[in-house]
Amino acid sequence: MPDLDTFIRRIPKTETHLHIEGGLPYELLVELDPQRFPEEAPFRHADYRYPSFVEFENLLIGHAMEWFNSAERYHQACEAMFEKMASLNIKYVETSFHLHMSEFIGVPGSEILAAIKSAVPAGMEVRIIGGMVRNGYTPFMKPIIDELHLWEDLDGIDLHGQEWLELEDWAQPVWQRCREAGKIVKAHAGEFGGPDKIREALDELGSRRIQHGVRAVEDEDLLQRLADEGAVLDVCPLSNEKLQVFPALEEHSLRKLVDAGVTCTINTDDPLCFGNDLLDEYRALATRLDFDQAELAQLAKNGFEHARIDPSLKREYIAEIDEVLHAT
Q1: From 191, 200, 241, 281, the catalytic residue
Q2: Exposed, middle or buried by CB within 10 Å (0-12, 13-18, 19+), for 32?
Q3: Burial of 299 (0-12, 13-18, 19+ CB in 10 A)
Q4: Distance (Å, rounded) from C-alpha 208 to C-alpha 187?
Q5: Which of 266, 262, 271 is nearest to 236 (CA)?
Q6: Is 250 a catalytic residue?
Q7: Mean pLDDT by 10 residues, the chain (328 residues)
């Protein structure tokens, strides 16, 4: 669909739910060891489905750990990631790195953060999020996590990983300190956990940026609350399909979320594992969920409306989206 592809490419876009380790360009692994990493990995095919989240997580970690062993490797990977995103007209990015990598590879988080920021190209605004898991408050990580609100160059925090684990007592004060410090506070919820996990993120963590949140449709009261409070769901449709959150994309809840007035953005999550890019995501919404160009444009505008950028730049990108839309 050349007209659709041209439209998607031309509109400025945001990417606000992207894990750096899960965004590692697969070609870097192929170059590193072509015997172990074939160019056509079966799990990256469009029709592949992960049997479980744990199997997906193990595959992601296993592949990422083959590359990420230094701050320089983070810089190299991010240079390639950001270059690809720039070619797709992505102007604003919120991307998280796994804070626990400090313990795994012995590199301070501050060095990883600096390496990522040094890879950001001109013309792209990138905000770096520190991600942690629910059971990750280990003796090694405790002093790091407790001081995240003091990291001047860290733009926000996120809770990710196995969503079904209980929220431990340490999380709420950490989120409160970071929120009070003006940082973006996110939480993965409503993907493999139900509506109760979304409420937990809202009420216990004070987060209005929910990563996924797609199971909110199971609770009409929650759906209305998300719309009324202006919460933002950073949705990753093809990830949800390949992880079998929904049997098929055609059964995804995005249409119901949008129709209920919930603010959603469109993102890729872990392109290393899913073989996707942002064009694939928008294209799939048009061809498989019947989103028209005006709706795609609004999804793109949602990303900029909630971006941490100068208001004048925000207005510029939104106006450019409208210009492309009206020209079609």
Answers
A1: 191
A2: exposed
A3: buried
A4: 9
A5: 266
A6: no
A7: 87 98 98 96 97 96 97 98 98 98 96 98 97 97 98 97 95 98 98 97 98 98 98 98 98 98 98 98 98 98 98 98 93
Residue 322 CA to residue 298 CA, distance in Å, equals 9
CATH number of this structure's domain 2-327, picked from the four choices 3.90.45.10, 3.40.50.620, 3.20.20.140, 3.30.930.10: 3.20.20.140
CA distance 85 to 281: 13
Amino acid at 118: S
Angle at 204 (CA atoms; ends 202, 209), nearest 5 degrees? 30
Q: Mind listing the pLDDT tens digit for each residue in 40-55?
A: 999 999 999 999 999 9
Residue pointed to by tokens 């894990």: 19
Burial class (CB in 10 A: 0-12, 13-18, 19+), 129: buried
Amino acid identity at 129: I
User: Could you tell me where the DSSP H helices lie in the chain?
Assistant: 2-10, 26-32, 53-67, 71-87, 101-105, 109-117, 142-145, 171-180, 195-203, 220-229, 237-242, 254-259, 271-274, 278-288, 293-305, 311-327
